[in-house]
Amino acid sequence: MAQLPLDEFSTAIARIQGLLLTEEKVASAVRLLAKAAKESVPASIGAGVSLLDSRGRRISSGYTDRIVEQADAAQYESGEGPCLTAWAAEEPVLVKHLPEEQRWPEWRSAVRPLPILSVVSAPLIAGKECIGTLKLYSATAHAYDGSSAGLLQLFANPAATLLTHIQASEAPLKMTEALQSSLHSRDLVNRACGVLMQRLGLGHEDALRQLMKQARDTRSTLQQASEAILAGTPASRA
Length: 238
Hints:
By secondary structure, the chain is of the alpha+beta class. It has helices at about 5-20, 25-40, 65-80, 80-90, 105-110, 145-170, 170-200, 205-215, 220-230; strands at about 45-50, 60, 95, 120-125, 130-140.
């Protein structure tokens, strides 16, 4: 199992901080971030960053390999997956062996043709805001473990702060609107999950999956589905 030694991790952090601080555009910064993350964990076949675009849509940016774009696109299309869960829950998500995974059935079906067996995704949290996720994909089973998730989160934290500064200096108004939209959406999702947890006796992750399923079934966004639940629309158990 590939792990990131602390000395290599420290070197990677120093490098990415220096690189990001010299970049003016977010696209260039996230490419450097993804490349550094992939190189720091040899078992990884691809790395990338998910962020909000100017219209508040989740997009993949700076991915190192085509497989990252494909796996992420399947998440955005199905409305479920490890990176979206890490973003919504604001905590790392670890997939040790994808064929044994029970979560995200639609996403798992969509990526079955891809050589992905392990995934680790960490939220990009700057201050109190989660602005996206940093993820690694591997073709090796059990390539990542809890320490990998912890190290990736340590890598993601300073990167999130730097990305926020770059975004803010590049387009302050766009960044402010995106963060406001993200904050409002996150609050709605968390409140809706709380309602489902109480109503159906679910844990937070199961409530989030139920909310995502309702959004897909009604062909609505996660925010619209959350608003419907908070307005009192009945939700059925999956």
